[in-house]
Prior knowledge:
This protein is mainly alpha-helical.
Amino acid sequence: MVKCLECEKEFKQITNRHLKFAHNLTTFQYKEKYPDSELFDKKILEFFSERSKKANELRKGVSRSESIKQKIKDTKSKQIIVPWNKGIAQTKETKDKLSQSGILRHRKWHEQNTHPQVGLKLPKETKEKISQSMISYARKNTDELKERAKNKKMKKKQERKPEEKKEKPSKTAEKPLKPAKKPEKPKPLVNEVEGGKE
């Protein structure tokens, strides 16, 4: 049984009729007021699921006609489903709880050096599928990939800071002293080489 939190009466199902005439509320307003409340008993939900399974078994393998498909499409297009918590801003308490839980989770991963995806290995079949899809995409879209590569190069060039020009040593700067050259020996005269003969 399910208890109505407005009148504290127990029902198998809290219907729209009860909420409207007894409390002047809609189901959306009731869920906004009591977000953790339930509208159906567990036994009724089980009964509904079993009934739908039996109904689907009868028409299993039988395709729907075009007229029935069109009717389903029209009814779905007319339905406007509004979530019960739409437009309701989160309170500071819930935001703080979410942020704290996230921080603690990441700290735990960092301290234990673990992560849910660490150690997971893809099977060979999935790896082959990924590689084949990448190859086929690259073959079909060669021009796009080339343009992307060019754009990336241009962005990298623009993002790079202009390198500071190295200061060249000025001409007036003092140069290291070179070792003094040895005095050259005077070349012998021609008459000395020929033995003084003129």
